[in-house]
Amino acid sequence: MKNNLYIDIHVLQTVPPSCVNRDDTGSPKTAVYGGVTRARVSSQAWKKAIRDVFRNQPMADNPSRRTKRIVDMVAEKIAQRSPEDDAQKLAIKALINAGLNVEEKHPQKGTDALFFMSDSQAAQLAKLICEGNEDKKAYKGALKEKPSVDMVLFGRMVASDPSLNYDAAAQVAHSISTHEVRNEFDYFTAIDDLSDEDSAGAGHIGTTEFNSSTLYRYATVNVCEAEKWLAKDTPRAIRDFVSAFLSSMPTGKQNSFANRTAPDCVYVTVRRDQPVNLVGAFEKPIRSRDGYAAASETALAKYAEETYDRFVDKPALAFCVSRHGENWADAEHLGRDQLLERVEKAVREACQHGEVD
Fold first, then answer.
1. CB 55 within 8 A of CB 253
2. 325 shares a domain with 253
3. What is the pLDDT of residues 53-104, one digit of tens each?
4. Residue 198, phi then psi, degrees to nearest 5
5. pTM given for the model
6. Do 212 and 320 sit in the same domain of this protein?
């Protein structure tokens, strides 16, 4: 596919009182935007949630892990191929041959930084070392070939050896509330079940900080970048990414708040020119005493129309799943499953013919 193609995903999602993503003090993360404080969920937190969903997707036959314990990953594959050998020792040698920094005397410490490795890459390293291959280029090649879908989408950065890097095909923005928020505190007490009957005191007292908000969430996928590594699997991989983006939720304080909700609005565009984040719709915060979701959707649709008219090309295709469909005159109105099918079809046609329909 010679031309650019981007899948932009815009989501409005309301979460009740919750602490989805905490800072170092335990407070919900925030950001100042448009002169007021917004609720914020970091892109890292949401990407981790997306990767967790990926493990249950149809294309999860080549799972990956981001870990320092890659010695164990390779040793497991070696033990399967050659049970009589010292798997740990051979795994260390294989990784050193590949150019990674592994502490030989303390292999349990693993690498000096987190490393993203797919199951297929670990298996190929095991194959090379069990066959007695001494070609270090072959080992390095094993770490570059057969990346998992999430490695292609989210990228891999290896500071010690940039040749092992993958440019991320997907970008995920920090989610922010469409309106101003003020964090609140939940004062709670816990009673000791085995305390004396005449005891009036609590076994534990504490506070939990929380907020509630309507979030604007945005992600984009560079289809051409994904196709470099995924080839014919690209359409299904991007469908799975969109599905995971819509259904995922970071797990911060989830047991305390049960805050897992569904989106209020999903707007997906297929673009030929460039990705377009529409967060500017909320630079002026939404103000309402009658809920934020509907007003946010109206503002988003209006801003999208103005942006397309004045600054960038209109999307080649646009789809929406909405509770207020009248806002999206130029989009095809669908259910969630239909939207995923249309995205997959558009990517497949672009990959095969260079056109979308």
1. no
2. yes
3. 887 776 667 788 888 888 999 999 999 998 888 898 999 999 999 988 887 6
4. -90, 10
5. 0.91
6. yes
